[in-house]
Amino acid sequence: MRQMPSSEDGYWIQENVISCRECDALIAALSSAKRSRAGARHLMNNPAVAELAADRRLLAVAESALGEAVPYRATLFEKSGKANWLVPWHQDTALSLESSFDAPGWGPWSEKEGILYAHAPAWALSRVMALRLHIDASTRENGPLRVVPGSHTAGVLTDERVLNYVRTHDETECTVSKGGVLAIRPLLIHASSKAQALSPRRVLHIEYADSLVLAEGIRLAMA
Hints:
By secondary structure, the chain is α+β, with helices and mostly antiparallel strands. The chain has a single domain (about 5-220), classed as q2cbj1_9rhob like domain (Jelly Rolls), CATH 2.60.120. About 20% of the residues lie in helices and about 30% in strands. The protein is built from 5 helices and 15 strands. It has helices at about 20-30, 45-55, 55-65, 120-125, 160-165, and strands spanning about 10-15, 40, 70-80, 85-90, 95, 110, 115-120, 130-135, 145, 170-175, 180-185, 190, 200-210, 215, 220. The longest helix is centred in the N-terminal third of the chain and has 11 residues, at about 55-65.
């Protein structure tokens, strides 16, 4: 019998973090958010999202891995029969930053909707944890996240090395009930397939750091 994942695996699942009623209220609060095909980004300026991100129930999950936890970025991923896509195996290596700088291991840089981003070194990413709050249940039919347990310890990998790693290690499918949270480290290798069902799979992806200041002159941007 497989043991439940833990922080040592680079991810874990915590069910029943918020209620189904709170999920429905969040859906209503996000109804006017500007959307792309895959969802909506930069949602920390949404009052309902900012309040939820600072809720003690979510903070406790992030703090269990980070010690201190400050929410700084939120993104809605919305997969359905009308907006369906697959995500190839990858790591999350880009961080939102208040200003640009020149330092080893950072870059390339980009800008999305007025927010600066740079690919970050492993030491910075180790100070971040993402909580994927499931507004809808994630089932085997609606394109759940798939992960490679323990892969976050391999460091920042090229696309080729990510694929080589996946070929030689086992993957796990992460199904989560409505109101549950999947916590993942940014460097955990993950992917998702297209949904096979028409029912939506909405996930509010909230990123936390142990501090907004990562080093002198390097500060995360609220996004």
